[in-house]
Amino acid sequence: MFELFPDQPVYDYPTLLNVFYSLVWAFALSSLIAITHKVTFSGHQYPKNFFQGLALGSIVAAMVMMAIGDSLARGLGAFGALAMIRFRTRIQDVRNILFIFASLSVGLAIGVFGYTIAFVGTILFCTMALVLHLSPFSTKDGIRGTLTFRLQDGKGHERVLAILDKYCTDYDDVEITARNNGRYDYEYQIEFMHEGDNRKFLEEMRAIEHTLRVRITFKDFQENN
């Protein structure tokens, strides 16, 4: 079976055919990882740019490894060039970080012509991700977000908690701020029921007397500083 993935020693100048063959496999395997991530995703809205990043990341990693080869000087040069780039994107979900590393690891393995490692690692990673998605440890039960709202003199808070119990599987108060004019600002981390209607939730929240500035923010992937 693994004759389709002949491991080869790293050499300085691979032929055009070897480069093309390697990069195609890198893209195919990382695309499988990206598809697995999309299938097991349980957030509010799946961003297409994250999918493309997973699919294309292995090609970049493979090209870097092929360019470096066994040369220490080229490795230090590539490290210096990458150090000049400032990555300002913060990934909040540990699971998303692991998928990014999986995609890059495929590229690293392909870049040193370790086809068997890349193939077996991708199949095992995707299989285990699907198994966990179907297990009790799955994150598909709810949609996470941040709820912020303002109450006049703190009135209506009991009604807010009743609505949270109705539409959310879990919620925790993160911050409560008292203003000089008698208003209170609340921030909650919430997890909606998978079949819950977010619009009805907002309508009931806004229908509460003395409730102002009701807002839900979904933070599935990342924040920009």
From TrEMBL:
Keywords: Membrane, Transmembrane, Transmembrane helix. The keyword Transmembrane helix applies. The chain crosses the membrane at residues 20-41, 53-85, 97-130. This is DUF4956 domain-containing protein.
